[in-house]
Design brief:
Oligomer: single chain
CATH architecture: 2-Layer Sandwich
Largest sheet: 5 strands, antiparallel
Strand content: 25-35%
Distance between the termini: 20 Å
Length: 146
């Protein structure tokens, strides 16, 4: 897959990095893809926010000396590709998603545990989500032009 990368940066593993990453990636999408529907931009903001929070809180444990590397690009002018990689030990994403899906089948989405809920939301908003084996790197694909 030949991706036109427009953003790549390592940022400190702190909550203050989240807004910077959101703004830069969304700006890059607009500059590289032209007009993107507001609902798609809103979903992208949620995706970036949730994945950065996970990387900062759990991967970097909010330590400034640990980092999150973010890469964003576009494939064929219609698919956003964003990768988040933290310096943490990783996590078992399959069991987290399965647990949340099981809970969702038994209750209202509003009653889901806070831990893991973000991954369920992200998985529903993306066209594809892929983790590395270790669980500290996630790549999402999201159609941006309909």
């Amino acid at each position: 897959m030949d991706i036109d990368i427009f953003f790549r940066q390592k940022v400190p593993g702190c909550l203050e990095s989240i807004n910077f990453i959101q703004n830069e990636v969304l700006r890059g999408l607009r500059e590289n893809c032209g007009r993107i529907a507001d609902d798609i931009l809103f979903e992208m903001r949620i995706i970036i926010n949730e994945l950065m929070i996970n990387a900062v809180k759990y991967g970097c444990e909010q330590e400034y000396d640990k980092h999150v590397e973010v890469m964003a690009g576009v494939y064929l002018d219609e698919l956003a590709v964003i990768t988040f990689e933290d310096e943490g030990a990783g996590f078992d994403y399959k069991s987290i998603l399965q647990k949340e899906l099981n809970q969702l089948n038994q209750c209202c989405i509003c009653d889901l545990d806070e831990n893991g809920r973000g991954m369920l939301i992200v998985s529903r908003l993306c066209d594809r989500i892929r983790f590395n084996r270790k669980g500290n790197k996630v790549t999402i694909l999201k159609k941006i032009n309909r």
